[in-house]
Every structure is written in structure tokens, then in C-alpha cells.
Amino acid sequence: MQTKRTIFPNKVLPYLLLVPQLAVTLVFFIWPALQAVKSSFEREDPFGFKTTFVWFENYRRLFADPNYLGSLSKTAVFATSVTVLAMSVSLLLAVAVSRVLRTSRLYTTLLVWPYAVAPVVVGVLWWFMFNPTIGIAPYILRGFGVDWNHRVDGVDAMLLVVMAASWKQISYNFLFFVAGLQSIPQSLIEAAAIDGAGPFKRFWTIVFPLLSPTTFFLLIININYAMFDTFGIIDATTQGGPAQATNVLVYKVYSDGFLGLNIGSSSAQSVILMIVVIALTAVQFRYVERRVQY
Amino acid sequence: MIENRPILAVLTHLVLILGVVIVVFPVYLAFVASTHGGGDFLRGLVPLLPGPNLFANYEFMLTEGLTTAGAPPLWIMLLNSLIIALVIATGKIFISILSAYAIVFFKFPFRMLAFWVIFITLMLPVEVRIMPTFKVVADLGLLNSYAGLTIPLIASATATFLFRQFFLTVPDELMEAARVDGAGPMKFFRDILLPLSRTNIAALFVILFIYGWVQYLWPLLVTTDSRYYTIVMGIKRLAATADAEPQWHLVMTAVMLAMLPPVLVVILMQRLFVKGLVETEK
Amino acid sequence: MASIDISAVKKIYAGNVTAIHNLDLTIPDGELVVLVGPSGCGKSTLLRMIAGLETITEGTVSIDEQVVNKKEPAERDIAMVFQNYALYPHMSVRGNLEYGLKNRGTPRDEIDRRVAEAARILEIEPFLDRRPRQLSGGQRQRVAMGRAIVRKPKAFLFDEPLSNLDAKLRGQMRIEIKRLQRSLKTTSVYVTHDQLEAMTLADRLVVMNAGRIEQVGAPIELYERPATLFVAGFIGSPPMNLIEVDYLRGRGDDLKLPEGTDLCGVRPDTIQVADPGEPSVRLDATIELYEPIGGESHLHLRLEGSGQLIVAAVPARTAVVEGATIPLFVRIADLHPFNRDSGRRTD
């Protein structure tokens, strides 16, 4: 790993500099993670007096549990929808902003602030807008003959959390797409224009392919976001319901552990989630390496 | 733009305006709701234009709050959020800049190990190790304390990576010149490296302040004492009671107050915010 | 003021890469010694070992008769001028000049006096309160020099200080450095890969190659009597031509060369188009390219028989035409005899 050509010769100082970060990491990250791995192989009796080592029993049960399998597929639907929706809307907006000159800063300011809104607040905003009793959206939808009620209809509930989660992520994707578009040399686009390509053709044949590093990076980030950072949105809108319709993995870990008090199962779920994050991080790092060669 | 196509230009602005409307509308609704009295929500549809109760609602929530929901006045929650966001941002920057300094400017046994231990925190968001982390904090007696609310969130691989990345771009000769000029490691850090990192620190601070402010699950778990409620977690408690006994105007007042500080930070420090965001992820 | 002694110094990097082989060199008090060689020859490594920025694997470096192997750069009382200047970007010019003195606890009035003096000598007084990025390349270079001067160190170490400047400025700064060093009489070690810079600056020139010293001496000595084939090729522009002895035999007067000579060096400016009337060899060559460069002209020639390409530097208005085959003469006294296998001079 890289360091400086010359380095300070001190022997003890670097350890002292590392102590705060390593201490926090070991106590609040590594140790709990190991605990999770350990208790994922154990079962507590109902009174919490005794724990027994049960090998992969918790995992086996998990994958035999229709609720968990349901949660897996709900998570897949949710993450895919959020990623596609949030990325396509923000790409459209980023391309539009890159076409305007004087007003681009104003539009950017108006589009980026949702990044700073807490997920749970996002949830409350959308829950308010879609409230079946007084919300504006169900009122308008009724005009079109649609009866919106995410409290009883699982599809409505899923649509609601997807919209809310995408809304929050637009600002983030937008900024990265804008940065990606700015890094494409103007001369290439001018060359394409001289070669007779119109604006739409230019976008699909020149801009979009050259944007692929950004797109790929955002793909990973968005999947990650949808899987792990949307707890607050779910908690404020549907709380996993109705009938498990929006009970995605990260919400289920919480509800099984803290509400259901099923430590073994919750730990096994934690471990599976960790494996997912590790896989996503690995993919992301391969991408970083590849980008270097660009 | 290369060619002049008026229709496309109009379309471009239409797309952008539609985008802004989508982004702003939910917040507009919340703002309108926060300016009405409680009775205005009984007609079966939310009001769409601002009402007269703006100051009354905000004053009421800031000074008294919904005591029925077991929540303290909002100014306490806002203050807690501010304290926690500042401590988390400062703490993360402090420990990350030191560890990045150690990793880049020194060679020592177990350097790679230290790097990997820090790196691994990337893979363990609090949501996935929630139970055991809660247990550790409970065992340490840190429930219902500022320490318990902040310290577990302070370790940050991204901030360490950002500083490492930046330190690697600092020319080697600068450090060599400082050594020839008689500066030891801490003096070099204070006199040269820290001043050079100013912009990076500021940009990172903006991002981390927001990170700290929007925390929800963790404060929800480690605080039962309402004196430590943060505004973001407090809102959920307010909203939960509002569904049963609609006090929409007050809930939305709280929502506006919870959003305002970090959103203002983003808008007022847009340049630093964009720099911080785009660079921490590289 | 001090001499620098380098004794049996070795530098071995991790992975067993030897950068410096058992090197001995003495730099007398007050001299400006230039280390020159191609990139990777170890000249910078040697300089950085003197500075204390690189550890010494074996051997000793002494400054002012004190072994400094274990001393921090700051404790060696040396000053260094870096290739990219390494000015502290967040400090004013004055701040840059003062930093080293402050760290040493120099009294305030002494600092002010020294900074004022250095600024006067280097003519940077108008910029003292500016930041480095507001200065031109040449001005930054002066500030970097100033930072070295204010310290009044035992030795100046220069690490390719002029390579970031354009050609014209480089010429000017070269003269200034020489003048400054003459007046301060501070022992100086100067690293460069530019042989012209090396020739013009050096009191003594050290040519290095692959971690070893090829030759040490006054610049003109090295030009007139290169000890090795490497030095012969490195010093002088255009470089020395090397012609097989077998080719030269029987062309012109009798060759009496030392035992073991199989290659002869011929400086381009010793090749003549008219018979000098002294013992000489005669070469016949075709002119492939006639290159006028002002004060002289370069002929790119292909030797009859062997087809080897050589270069001759002749007076500017020599009347020749491209494509013609002409006779050329080299005095036997101007031949530099070498042995190919040892790479060394044979006389």
C-alpha cells in the first residue's frame, strides 16, 4: 500500500494516532459483528437462561421460513424499483441541467437539498401526502377511479415506499451524473455534432456510453442505499406491512430482534446482510480498479 | 449547447421544472399544513394554500410540544440533534485525520492490519449489526447518554479514506522541506498538513453534520429518556400519535423544523457540500 | 562551512535493489560539486542520504567531520532546494523564509534581519507578503533559494532545482546560483541530469552511473580526458563518436595506440574537412544531413565501408553539399583510446 517516499522514523507515534479510531472500531464494529456471527449459531431458550450451540439451524430455519423468503423477494423488488426509478429520473434531470447555461445553478440548488432530509422525515412527508383519509394524492387518484389505500393494499404500500425512497435519492444521483457529464470532453460531443449526430443520437451513442463508469458506480450505491438506508422510510410509512408486503430485510432484522426478541434468527439475518454488503463492496472496489484504467 | 433548437430548449426547462415540482411538492404540503389550525384538517382533504397559524404553531411546538406524546418541547430536541450532529462530525474528522496521517506518513508493523480493520467498518452499517451493538452499548451503561448516542457512530472508513487520498496528493517534498526546516511529525501535522486540509475538512464536516443529524434508528434504540430525544426520532413518535388523534398541523411543524437546519446547510454551503459528497465516495 | 565526507556508502532498497554501491566521495569546504548522470543512476539517492531523507544501508556520511548517519535532517544543519520548490502553499513568502528559523528558536530580531538580507540578495522584497501561488516560476525558485540562504547552513543541497523552468530562465538562474555560491562560499551539492548545467556550474563534477561514480574532476578535465566510455558518451554535445580501431587502421598515418585499445573516441569538433598536416587518420564519408545551427554546423555522416553514422561539428560556412562523399581528417592526438570490454580509457 502506498505511503510517502520518505516517512517519519517514529516507532510509537503512529500507534498512538491510530488508537482512537481502532478503539471505536473494535468496540462498536468488530466485536458486535463477531457477536452476531456467534449468536447466529446459537439458540436461547424462551426464558433466556440457556444458550445452546445449534450449528446452522438458525440459517436452515430462516431459509425454510416463507416470511423470510417473502422478505427476500420484497427486498429484491424494492431495491430494483428504487434503483431504476431514482437513477432514470436523476439522469434525465442531470442531462437537462447540463443543457441549460445560466439557470443551471438555480436548478441544481432546487434539486439537491432532499439529500439532507432524514429518511424518516421523507417517510412522514409521503405518508402525509398519501394518507388515505386526508392525503392529496388519494383524493386525486379517486378522481381517476383509483382507490388508494396502502394500509390494506400491499401493492399500494410497495409503490409508496418505492416513491418515497426514490425521491430522497434523486439529489444524490443527480449530483454524480452532473459531475460525470461534466467530465466528458466537450470536443467529443462537438465532433459527433460535426459528424451529423443530432442531440438524441449524440446522447445514446456518445454521452451514455462514456457515462457508464458513473452509472455503474451509482448502481451499486443505489442498491446499497435501498437495502440499508431506507429503514426510516419504511418505519414511518408502512412498518413492513400490510401483511409483510414491505417487510424488507433490514426492517425484518430490527423487528425480529427488538420486537420479536428472536436473537438467533435476527443474528443469522444480520450475518446474511453483512455478506451482502461485503459482496457489494467487493464489486464496488473492482469497479474502482477498473476505472483507473479508463 | 451546439445547435439552436427552441423546442428542445423549452422541453429541457419543462423537464427541470417538473423535477423541481416533484422534489418541492411534498415539502410544500408539509409547510402549508404547518400554517393551519387543527380544525382545518377535518374536511377530508389537506389544505393547499398557507393558513394564518404559522407563528402560533411554531411557537407552540418549540416551547411546549406535544406533551401527550411524551415528547419534550422541540427546542430541546433540536438542541440535542445539534449537539449530536456536531459531536459526530467533529469526532469522525478528528479520529479519521489522525489515523489517515499514521497510515500515510509512517511505516510500522501491522500497518496493513490497521488499514483493514478500518476498512471493514465500511461493510458493517449499524442496521446490520443492530442487536449486538445495542447490547455492547447497554453493557457499557451508555444508554440514554450523549456518549451512547454519538461514539458508536464515530468510526468512519470513508472519512479516513478521503484524508488518505488527499494526503497522498500532498507533494513528498513538502514534508521533506519541513523536516529539513526542523519540524517533527506533530509540528508538520499542525503547521503544514492541517492548514492544507482546511477545505477538505470543511467539505467533510458538511456531509458528516448531515449524517449525524438524520440518524434515526440508533437514537430510537438507545434513548428512552425523553431528555435525549433528537428531533428526527421525536417526529416519529409525534406522527404515531397523530394518526390516532390528528394534529397534523403540529406534526408538520415539527417536520419543517427537523428539515430546516440540514437543508439550510446544504443550500448555503452548496459548493462545500458537493465537493464533500463527490469526493468522499471516490 | 564544512566539508562532506562520504565513505563506503551503500544503499540497498527493500527487495534487494542496490541503488548505491560502496561509494566514496569527499566534498571539500566551500566547493560546488555537481552530481550528474542519467535518471536512476543514484545521484538523487546520494543527495537525499546526505540530507537525511533516506537511510544509509552501510558506510558513513559525515558533515563537518561528524558522522550524521543517525541524525534527523534538521539536526544536520543543511538546507535543501527541491525540484518543485516545495514552498508551503498556505504561508506567505516571509512565512516560508521564517519557518525553519522559528523552529530552531532563532530570536525575532535575528529572523527579521536574515529574512531582509536574503530578500535583498535575491530581489524578492516586493513579494514578501504574497503567497507562493501568486508568484511566477522564477520567483518561486528565488524564494526556495531564499529559504536555504536564511538558514546560513553548513551546506546547500540542490535537487534538480532548475528543471521546472523554461530554457531561458534556467540559463539566468544557473548564473545566479553560481554567483551566489561564489559569494557565500557555502559547501554545495547539486544534482542534475543536464550535462550543460553540470559543466557550467561545477567546481568539480561527479559523473554517476548505475550507483557508482564513473569519474570525478574539473568539468574541462572530464571533457578532455573522459576516463570511461560512459563519461565519454555523457559529457559533450553532440556526443563523442566511437569508431572501431580496426576500421581506422590503414586509413592515413600509422596508429600507435596503447595495449588493449579496440575503440577510439572522436569528438565531433575534432573532425576536420581539410588535411591538418599532422599525423592523422583519413575517413571518407557521405553527407546525409547538413544541419546549420548558427556558430557551427553539424554534419551527419555515413562512413564508407562500415556504414556507421557519425556526427562532425564544422565551422558554420563549410562549403559542402548533402549527398556528396568527402574526405575527413582527425589528428591522431585527438583520438581517445578505449577498451570496449572494460569500458575504460587505455592511455
TrEMBL record, chain A:
Q: Which regions span the lipid bilayer?
A: 12-34, 76-98, 110-129, 157-181, 202-221, 268-288
**Origin: domain of life:** Bacteria
Q: Where is the ABC transmembrane type-1 domain?
A: 72-284
The record's subcellular location field reads: Cell inner membrane; Cell membrane
Q: Name one Pfam family in it.
A: BPD_transp_1
Asked if Transcription regulation is a keyword of the record, the answer is no
InterPro entries assigned to the protein according to its UniProt record, in alphabetical order: MetI-like, MetI-like_sf, UgpAE/MalFG_permease
Topological category with respect to the lipid bilayer? Multi-pass membrane protein
Alphabetized, the UniProt keywords read:
Cell inner membrane, Cell membrane, Membrane, Transmembrane, Transmembrane helix, Transport
GO biological process annotations for this chain's record? transmembrane transport
Say yes or no: keyword Transport present: yes
Q: Gene Ontology cellular component?
A: plasma membrane
Q: Which family does it belong to?
A: Belongs to the binding-protein-dependent transport system permease family.
| Function, as annotated | Part of the ABC transporter complex UgpBAEC involved in sn-glycerol-3-phosphate (G3P) import. Probably responsible for the translocation of the substrate across the membrane.
State whether it acts alone or in a complex, and with which partners, per the record.
The complex is composed of two ATP-binding proteins (UgpC), two transmembrane proteins (UgpA and UgpE) and a solute-binding protein (UgpB).
Q: What is this protein called?
A: sn-glycerol-3-phosphate transport system permease protein UgpA
UniProtKB/TrEMBL annotation, chain B:
* SUPFAM superfamilies according to UniProt: MetI-like
Lineage, top-rank taxon, reads Bacteria
**Gene3D superfamilies (UniProt xref):** MetI-like
GO CC terms of this entry: plasma membrane
Kindly give the membrane topology term recorded for this protein: Multi-pass membrane protein
The record's annotation in InterPro entries points to: MetI-like, MetI-like_sf
Give the family from UniProt: Belongs to the binding-protein-dependent transport system permease family.
Described by its record, this protein's role is as follows: Part of the ABC transporter complex UgpBAEC involved in sn-glycerol-3-phosphate (G3P) import. Probably responsible for the translocation of the substrate across the membrane.
Q: What is this protein called?
A: sn-glycerol-3-phosphate transport system permease protein UgpE
Species name: Devosia insulae DS-56
High-level lineage: Bacteria, Pseudomonadati, Pseudomonadota, Alphaproteobacteria, Hyphomicrobiales
Q: Which gene encodes it?
A: ugpE
TrEMBL record, chain C:
Question: Does the record carry Cytoplasm as a key word?
Answer: no
Q: GO:BP terms for this protein?
A: carbohydrate transport
* Major subcellular location class: membrane
Q: InterPro entries recorded for this chain?
A: AAA+_ATPase, ABC_transporter-like_ATP-bd, ABC_transporter-like_CS, ABC_transpr_MalK-like, ABC_transpr_MalK/UgpC-like, Mo/tungstate-bd_C_term_dom, NA-bd_OB-fold, P-loop_NTPase
Origin, by domain of life? Bacteria
**Family listed:** Belongs to the ABC transporter superfamily.
Name by which UniProt lists this protein: Sn-glycerol-3-phosphate ABC transporter ATP-binding protein UgpC
Query: Source species, please?
Result: Devosia insulae DS-56
